[in-house]
Design brief:
The protein is an alpha/beta fold. The protein has helices at about 10-20, 35-40, 60-65, 85-95, 105-115, and strands at about 5, 30, 45-50, 75-80, 100. The protein has a single domain, classed as Response regulator (Rossmann fold), CATH 3.40.50.2300. Strand 4, helix 4 and strand 5 form a beta-alpha-beta unit. The longest helix is centred in the first third of the chain and has 13 residues, at about 10-20. It binds magnesium ion (MG). Magnesium ion binds near residues 9 and 50.
């Protein structure tokens, strides 16, 4: 399974990628914003994205992916500090499959991945 991790923080990407590798997910690629993410979508089975990023934010990325004839069915988990109910609801309304608020544990990430990939 190929996973794309999108976050403008290199440190956060490293944390997420380490969690994924410890969970046995070794086919992981990275992008620093939504525009980069779109150009790396080929063959991606799961998208993990931050919300607040320069160039193109995570919510805009989700909208673009859900509009895309090629990638619209790719599961998306948003991993963000935006944990207020309104933000969570807006993300879900726009097609995010699940939502994780930073900081999070390796276990939470593994659970959410299993759930969306069922
Ligand atoms: Mg960010």
């Amino acid at each position: 399974m190929k996973i794309l991790v999108v976050d403008d923080s290199i440190t956060m990407r490293r944390i997420i990628v380490n969690h994924l590798k410890q969970g046995g997910y070794n086919n992981v690629i990275e992008a620093g914003n939504g525009v980069e993410a779109i150009s790396h979508m080929a063959g991606v089975d799961l998208l993990l994205t931050d919300w607040n990023m320069p160039v193109m934010d995570g919510l805009t990325l989700v909208k673009e992916i859900r509009k895309s004839p090629t990638f619209s069915s790719v599961p998306i988990i948003m991993i963000t500090t935006e944990g207020a109910k309104a933000e969570v609801l807006e993300a879900l309304k726009n097609g995010v499959n699940d939502y994780i608020v930073k900081p999070f544990s390796k276990g939470t990430l593994a659970e959410k991945i299993q759930k969306v990939m069922e």
